[in-house]
Amino acid sequence: MLNVILTDVDEIGDDMLTNPHSQLISFTGSTAVGKHIGAIAGGMLKRVALELGGNNPFIVLADANVDRAVDAAIFGKFIHQGQICMIINRIIVHQNHYDEFVEKFVERAKALPYGDPRDPKTVIGPLINEKQIEKALAIMEEAKKEGAKMALEGKRIGNILTPTVFIDVDNHSKLAQTELFSPIATIIKAASDDEAIAMANDTEYGLSSAIFTEDVSEGEQLALQVESGMTHINDQTVNDSPTVPFGGTKASGIGRFGNPWVVEEFTMTKWVSIQKEYRRYPF
């Protein structure tokens, strides 16, 4: 049975969480709301499956193919105007490729067509609502005030924000540590592959990630070091399938979705035993 209730938060409050008939709370949304749900569910010993926010790193290692990395980064940053939990949030590039990557990425971003999403040629369409574009513009203005360097400044056209690219970004800055959820790209320089991995992990989130390298075996080993639920080698971060264990670590959530993992989340495992012969007990 599927029950659908359409309501505002103010109308329903926490009733869906505290209702004794709900044994598991499955939620997709912001980390802040996920923490609220987790706090209430934990107090009632209810299980949760939470798919929350992300600050997904796209890592370009010293031996990467730059042109292919740029192709993937453009798609993984700007698909759906960046409004995807798996979207690339931080682009971390080894210093050997940094200047070349920035130049090619900015040129590609400049050329992305924007406008009416009903036009099949459009890549950058409008953000979801007025509140979201105001939030994106506020992030841009605050970053500029803090001295962030802008290689491409987007412009607002209605609810459309054209691509924006910040470069030489400090990985510890508010700009880098914020889930941008908009067509705003941040590019960070790494002195080494090890530093790139360390930078990737330096976030409270851990949803998706990507590594570009010509050494796939090394990429597999480094993928295990990245603190995220999913890592894609020589691809971008926006990937999903009904048959993969989709989910994150740290502030990006709890549990895994996709078959058969989600079945485990929604199923209570129980041991039933049958004693077929008389059992002699010690007392």
UniProtKB/TrEMBL annotation:
Pfam families listed in its UniProt record: Aldedh
InterPro entries found in the cross-reference section: Ald_DH/histidinol_DH, Ald_DH_C, Ald_DH_CS_GLU, Ald_DH_N, Aldehyde_DH_dom
Keyword Acyltransferase: no
Active site feature: E51
UniProt keyword list: NAD, Oxidoreductase
Domain Aldehyde dehydrogenase residue range list: 2-272
One GO MF term: oxidoreductase activity, acting on the aldehyde or oxo group of donors, NAD or NADP as acceptor
PANTHER family: BENZALDEHYDE DEHYDROGENASE YFMT
Family: Belongs to the aldehyde dehydrogenase family.
Name under which the protein is recorded: Aldehyde dehydrogenase (NAD+)
Organism the protein comes from: Parageobacillus thermantarcticus
